[in-house]
Specification:
It contains five helices and no strands. The chain is an all-alpha fold and 138 residues long. α1 runs antiparallel to α2 and α1 packs antiparallel against α4.
């Protein structure tokens, strides 16, 4: 995805764009906090490099912040964006158990032996035949 390349191509200065995308799409507090942290690191890194001499500790700290952003943002972005999202129901391991699939009337529950299922299908067909015959008589 293009958003993983943005921090690398801009040497970390625009790494906040990828974090903004994650925060807007997933709407989780953690992603908003990561956006703030990456934006602070990017602005802080550029601010520290700008006015200082090239051999000062401020310039070194600024470069470390930007290079850290170059490495961290694409890795975090891929880890969060490629993680499968649960569709409907609770997330396993977060306290709320997922409900077992509902058994519909006339349908056998999943996992019955083959012979029991055949009997269930025959019974369902017999019920359907009786219903249709009753409808024809009316």
């Amino acid at each position: 995805m293009v958003l993983t390349a943005v921090p690398v191509l801009t040497i970390g200065m625009l790494g906040w764009i990828s974090m903004l995308y994650l925060a807007l799409v997933h709407r989780r507090r953690r992603d908003w906090l990561m956006l703030v942290a990456v934006a602070a690191a990017s602005v802080g890194g550029v601010a520290l490099i700008g006015p200082s001499g090239k051999d000062s500790w401020q310039a070194t700290t600024g470069v470390v912040l930007l290079l850290g952003t170059v490495v961290f943002v694409p890795a975090y972005f891929l880890a969060v964006d490629l993680r499968p999202q649960p569709s409907g129901g609770a997330v396993p391991g977060q306290g709320t158990p997922m409900a077992p699939p509902a058994v519909q009337p006339g349908h056998p529950p999943v996992g019955l032996p083959h012979q029991d299922r055949i009997g269930q299908v025959r019974a369902g067909l017999d019920e359907l035949s009786a219903y249709l015959e009753q409808q024809e008589r009316s």
